[in-house]
Amino acid sequence: MASYTLPTTEARSRFLSLVKDAGETFSRYVITHHGKPEAVMMGFDEFEGWLETLEIVQSPSWKKALAKARREDRSGRRLSYEDVVGRKRVSH
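User: That's the sequence. What structure does it adopt?
Assistant: Structure tokens below.
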């Protein structure tokens, strides 16, 4: 997943290839106008994923669970990787 920045003139001349690339490779294109970022082009599947994530993090139950996890972390109540998965992680 790569991110590229290009001016509107270039984006316009390469529009169809950018659309295809964004959809197939999850590339993102930041499109600038007079050097200022103005828009982002990304594939539809990635866009839907962003929308789902935003919906989740805005839900009251998720916010409550995150607040609880932060309180537990501050109090030192944590689980190790081994506690959660039940085995040691293999390092390379």
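Residues 46-75 form one domain.
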